[in-house]
Amino acid sequence: MTIADTKKTMETKMDQSIVAFKHNLQKIRTGRANPALLDVIHVDYYGSMVPLSQVANVSLLDSRTISVQPWEKNLSAKIEKAIRESDLGLNPASMGDLIRVPMPPMSEERRKEMTKLARNEGESAKIAIRNLRRDANESVKKLVKDKLASEDEQKRSETEIQKLTDRHIAEIDALVAAKEQEIMAV
């Protein structure tokens, strides 16, 4: 493995960390409805627990209401129960074969809790990025130790690895700031 391979692998993993972080941010509630909030809910479907999106169509009715339309009529009660029992604090209402999930307005205190949650997710993502930096630097040091790379190449690569790390951490900071602004918008 060369220094270039190490950097390419590290950058790929960092990009994957950013994608995972964005996915985690989607699950954090804002004032508006988001169908991704219900991704964590699993429904009992003939004895096995399956994600809600596999047994129903989840979409937005308006900015504060999510609609869930089960593909089988007998699942409505189970879906309602699963949403009600989730820790999201939602209260679904059935209207025929359509389930409406209104998003309750968030209090100022709840908004602050959500921003803390977003910051914690951001910090976890930064830790993952820094761990990847450490692993890449150790890999380069091993190449130098095994005489497969020079010390000059090591210094150059450490600088480049740090620049990649800084760029990804700045991206995480920007995503956290945008999410905080979205959460605090009334």
Automatic annotation (TrEMBL):
Gene3D superfamilies with a match to the protein in the record: 3.30.1360.40, Ribosome-recycling factor
Phylogenetic lineage: Bacteria, Pseudomonadati, Pseudomonadota, Betaproteobacteria, Burkholderiales
Protein family according to the UniProt entry: Belongs to the RRF family.
Organism whose genome encodes this protein: Giesbergeria anulus
Gene Ontology terms for molecular function: ribosomal large subunit binding
Domain Ribosome recycling factor intervals: 21-184
One Pfam family here: RRF
NCBIfam families, sorted: frr (TIGR00496)
Subcellular location: Cytoplasm
Keywords from the named record: Cytoplasm, Protein biosynthesis
A cellular component annotation (GO) from this entry: cytosol
Function statement: Responsible for the release of ribosomes from messenger RNA at the termination of protein biosynthesis. May increase the efficiency of translation by recycling ribosomes from one round of translation to another.
A Gene Ontology BP annotation from the UniProt entry: cytoplasmic translational termination
Name used for this protein in its record: Ribosome-recycling factor
